[in-house]
Specification:
Blueprint (H helix, E strand, L loop, with lengths): L1 H21 L6 H19 L4 H5 L1 H9 L4 H5 L5 H19 L1 H13 L3 H16 L4 H18 L9 H16 L9 H15 L5 H26 L11 H11 L4 H18 L1 H4 L8 H14 L1 E2 L2 E2 L3 H7 L2 H19 L2 H9 L7 H18 L2 H18 L5 H11 L10 H8 L4 H29 L7
Antiparallel strand pairs: 1-2
């Protein structure tokens, strides 16, 4: 085991060095460094010779040593809004652990959803899918994963890496956010960015939200059906049912007695933060800087101020010993990697290699850009994937004298389908930070990506041929 760990420790930087030194003249130095770092981080994330959070710090060190991208550009990823959101959410759930709210929520979920583990997995997947249609996937994952973790801890699952059930439930929550993310424009930044490209480069008029929903509806329905079937058979938990019956868990809830004032405060603050995230459009003009991240942080800080009989909901000594610090650093590392691939031109380099094969359009061109999109979105953020691929699609099809609108729809849907790596989307990054088995997420995520590619490409291309409205904006 020790020898294997040593090998994995060496292979990661060796992959980086090999690509940087032997990558050839076709790739610029920054591109070779960024792609080499991708190989290094992916290897360490999957084989885990060091803690996942340790790998998350590599972008800073490598950028400083090899000077292929300004360090301040990389450093910004470690203090972005979404890191603050995760910090605030973690403070709130730490208050849950302090007063036992997590146990109460876990019991309630077991009563409502039942003890069948396959049903639990599917329920969390569908819930994340529905919520992500109207909320950014990171916010949905940040809200759901603590509740999933509470239930898992209650049934005795602490080590998610070695638990098939633990990994499956977290992955279900993460992937649900990706599958539902393109159903409406409110699903996140990638969708709004795609709308901006359509308005500025194609239609030159406002793109209506109702147009988005109707055009993407067939692809949404198709991917939901395929992903639900896949989730049903992809994971085989180590237990078919959680020990205990509905009556047993109801008795456990009764034994807890009524909620204490501290529990009520802890739960209320989390619900307030989540509600503020949902209601952001209603007050954005009044408080333009008060993004969801700061709503969660504000409610988290209130946990130190609200007191009952002189005792705050949490004290700092307790909080710092129960915070999931590795979650923040892993998420930041994945985001930094995506930024480096984008800013150095590494992702665009990959796209440029494939663009000449677009030919004269038709199915070959659509398939080519679809494959490119699904690959890019597995290694960099879904927003970066859209930013890279959509302009290339627009310019390519306009150059061929073809209407680019339907092809933009297809690649935008695919650009939301990040499943395999923590760097691919907010949902997988959040789930990875809780210590799930990244090997499972990688290999099953690649299968899920392939299914998404086939499904969305088939539905999208058939819509292009037989549904005239699909070619309009």
């Amino acid at each position: 085991m020790r020898n294997r760990t040593t090998v994995h420790l060496i292979v990661g930087p060796a992959l980086f060095a090999g690509l940087v030194l032997l990558g050839g003249g076709a790739m610029a130095y920054p591109v070779r460094c960024a792609l080499g770092l991708l190989l290094w981080m992916a290897w360490w994330w999957v084989t885990t010779p060091v803690d996942l959070a340790v790998t998350g710090f590599l972008p800073l060190v490598v950028a400083a040593l090899f000077n292929f991208i300004p360090v301040p550009q990389v450093l910004a990823a470690y203090a972005q809004d979404l890191i603050i959101l995760l910090l605030g959410a973690n403070l709130l759930t730490t208050a849950w652990a302090r007063w036992g709210i997590d146990r109460r929520i876990a019991l309630a979920s077991l009563v409502v959803m039942g003890t069948n583990t396959e049903r639990q997995i599917m329920t969390w997947f569908v819930l994340a899918l529905v919520l992500s249609a109207v909320l950014p996937n990171t916010i949905v994952a940040a809200a759901l994963c603590p509740i999933v973790l509470a239930m898992l801890k209650f049934v005795g699952i602490e080590d998610l890496w070695h638990s098939r059930l633990g990994t499956a439930m977290m992955v279900a929550s993460a992937w649900g956010t990706s599958v539902g993310g393109f159903a409406t424009p409110l699903g996140g930044a990638p969708n709004l960015l795609a709308i901006q490209f359509i308005q500025n480069s194609i239609t030159h008029h406002e793109f209506l939200f109702v147009t988005w929903v109707t055009r993407f509806l067939p692809m949404t329905i198709g991917l939901v059906i395929v992903s639900v079937v896949f989730m049903r058979f992809a994971f085989k938990p180590e237990m078919a049912d959680v020990a205990g019956s509905r009556t047993f868990f109801l008795d456990q809830i009764r034994e807890l007695g009524p909620m204490s004032m501290q529990e009520r405060w802890g739960l209320s603050l989390f619900l307030i933060a989540t509600a503020l995230a949902f209601a952001r459009p209603l007050y954005a003009s009044l408080l333009p800087a008060f993004a969801p991240a700061y709503a969660f942080l504000a409610c988290g800080l209130l946990c130190f101020l609200i007191r009952r009989d002189g005792e705050p909901l949490i004290r700092w000594n307790y909080a710092q010993s129960h915070m999931m610090w590795g979650l923040f650093y892993l998420f930041a590392g994945g985001t930094a990697l995506g930024e480096m691939l984008d800013k150095t031109g590494a992702a665009a380099f990959i796209a440029g290699l494939l663009t000449p094969y677009a030919g004269g359009g038709g199915f070959t061109a659509v398939a080519l850009f679809s494959v490119l999109t699904i690959v890019v979105t597995q290694i960099t953020s879904n927003t970066a994937a859209i930013a890279i691929v959509v302009p290339i699609v627009i310019s390519t099809f306009q150059g061929l004298g073809l209407n680019p609108i339907p092809f933009v729809y297809i690649v935008t849907a695919l650009g939301n389908c990040g499943f395999a790596l923590p760097s691919s989307a907010g949902g997988p990054a959040v789930a990875a930070g809780y210590g799930i088995n990244l090997q499972t997420m990688l290999w099953k995520g690649l299968v899920m990506s392939a299914l998404a590619l086939v499904t969305l490409l088939a539905i999208g291309y058939l819509s292009t041929l037989y549904w005239p409205a699909f070619t309009e904006a």
